[in-house]
Amino acid sequence: MKHTLDIVPLKSWIDTGDKPLIIAGPCSAETEEQLVSTAHLLANTGKVNVLRAGIWKPRTRPGEFEGIGSIGLEWLKRAKEETGLLTATEVATAKHVEEALAAGVDILWIGARSTANPFTVQEIADALVGVDVPVLIKNPVNPDLSLWIGALERLNRAGIKKLGAIHRGFSSFEKTAFRNEPMWDLAIQLKSACPELPIINDPSHICGNRELIPYIAQKAMDMDLQGLIIESHIDPSVAWTDAKQQVTPAALAELIDNLAVRHPESDNPAFEDKLSELRTQIDKLDDTILKQIGDRMKIAEKIGEYKRDNNVTILQVNRWDEIVQKRLQLAKALSLSEEFAAKYLELLHNESIRKQNEIMNTKSATEV
Prior knowledge:
By secondary structure, the chain is α/β, with parallel strands linked by helices. It is 49% helix and 9% strand. The protein has helices spanning 10-13, 32-45, 71-83, 94-102, 112-115, 118-127, 145-157, 184-193, 203-207, 213-222, 249-257, 269-309, 317-333, 338-360; strands at residues 21-25, 50-52, 86-90, 107-110, 135-138, 163-167, 199-201, 227-231. It has an 8-stranded parallel β-barrel, surrounded by 5 helices. β5, α7 and β6 (163-167) form a beta-alpha-beta unit. α6 runs parallel beside α7 (145-157) and α12 crosses α14 (338-360). The protein is elongated.
């Protein structure tokens, strides 16, 4: 479902040429020297458009460093004056908004914890009525696309037209290599729902460690996201927050140099002709697959009737386990990922169960 947002293009409020938007800076503003020195190193790379720094930090437990507070805004102002970089920081209350705007902060962002709370988002939106400032909204902590879109709509209704999203990954119970699971499908769904919306990737918070950042950054470029927001510290080893996921300005410059930035379209007619031919093949295969799934569900309905007439339960765990194991082996042989195959089988199974449930709740021909 498409969601219409009244926004202006990214290029109209920050010109990056044909390069992706790069926002970088320390997770937290710690001292004036740390922030300003980092800003100079980032500016000297010639690859950074915006300096970011956390002034107020939402922490999971009390007693942890919760940001330097309002004094850090003066440090951001100094860094901007000395380097020419635009500045950005996170806001979570109306007071944060008021103070950040008074200090001349150029771009505001709303964090994942705040996005998850419509009351908080509305408070920020109300504080921004009548203000012309870019606002970026991080995805909520949990994978809830409606919540993410709802936050964007609240800001848009408040009159914010310089609007963007930040894909920073989602919380997961499963322990993986990532701090937050990328769940690229959610970013793709947002892109499909709001095609005019710029989406920036946050590989720092997805990865949780600097070693994986280049991989996720490249993936974001391949997915046609419009930029990156990466945490960078003059000396990550002594950072007060998120030390493991911050990179030095020199490492950031190297990362950006190694990015392969591709384009969503090509002006090569031969390429377009070949792409059109391959897409036609895909369309035909998709039609065939859906028809075969339809045939499969008709058989599932017959199975449901047979189980109903013989007083047998719908679910037989042993049979389902057998199907999964055989199909996963086949998927592996076909070079399909196990994750994809498992999700596909789960969807098929759920639809089969739904069909059989419908049959179970109808009378058989002999009972009519």
